[in-house]
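Fold sample X.
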Amino acid sequence: MQSESITSTKKELVQRIAEDTGQTKSVVRKVVQTFLDTIIDDLAQGKRIEFREFGIFEIKHREARTARNPRTNDPVEVPAQRLVKFKPGSRMREQIAGQGEGKPAATKKVRPDVQTSRPATRPASEPPKAPPPTSPDSPF
């Protein structure tokens, strides 16, 4: 289901989840709102929130600084502030890079002509190798 608008709203999200799960819109609305409230509360407490494959929300502190008014070139004091930073996760980055057409996350392809690592164990047909001989002067 694609929306005609470019912006997706919480109302549309609730509608889609309700359709996908078979839950009522009122139940889904409450779950979504509780989820969002919990994220906001945790960020306000300075917690880092990580959703694997989706992304990471964290608070960054920006120090107070002096900026310039672009019209007058006068100095302007900008107070310190806490900002929310979002770093997209692997699946989000891959799906968006795939033009956002709902493509599944890309998988790594293994090239048969390239050996990426040694085998973890030796074949059963090979006997174990003897340790190298030590010199008579060696303490080992």
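Fold sample Y, listed below.
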Amino acid sequence: MELGIGVAILLAIWAYIGIVINLAPGLAWHEPIIAGTVTGLIVGDVSVGLQVGAALTLMSLGMHTYGGTTIPDFHVGSILGTAFGVATGNVETGLAIGISAALLMIQLDVFGRAVTTGFIHAADRYVEKGNFRGVTLMHLLGHIPWGLTRAIPVFLAIWLGQDAVIAFTEWMPEWFMAGMQTTGRILPALGFALLLGQLPVKKYLPFLAIGYVLFAYLKVPVIGIAIAAIALAVLYMQVKGGTENA
């Protein structure tokens, strides 16, 4: 099946909408299963969209941008995986391309975040001048870099075809990929540092230590740590204030 420029434009718009809505309440539109289903409707095969979306959903369980963490973009991965799965008639091929695209989007996510800081600094200057309409404008325009880092790659990938996607991935300089990966590792640490700065860490230091040991030494997944945290919170409230406060 040949994917024309019309399909490329529609999927680019869908990719843009997905990431922008993710910055708001979300409504789960950016989830892989939904991204794959909608893409399947656009390209004419919902079955492939469900298969690719379900597979990527399983891979994304427990993964989220906590504290600004940069993670694979499974929304874009589902879009491209479904599109190329339908185009090639092979779900496995589409899934392989989708996973590669999701990983590649880590680098573009870092780039999008970096560009967006320009709007933040501009908003700060407007605040100093008391121009709140300017602050609102910068807030509204801030989603453009994020959206374009998804829409442009999706459009080019669909328009140029899977061979171009694979060739571009192999063409990327190793130093550039290494630099983006390093930046992606630094951002989570910075994000968590900012979060910890707003929390009463000293008061609840034992809980922080327990979480660190579970993750760093015992390799417990995030979902497991979350369940343990809920259980500890209930026990803490019961011991501190009685069962009526639990």
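Sample Y note: Residues 5-199 form one domain.
Also: The mean pLDDT is 81.
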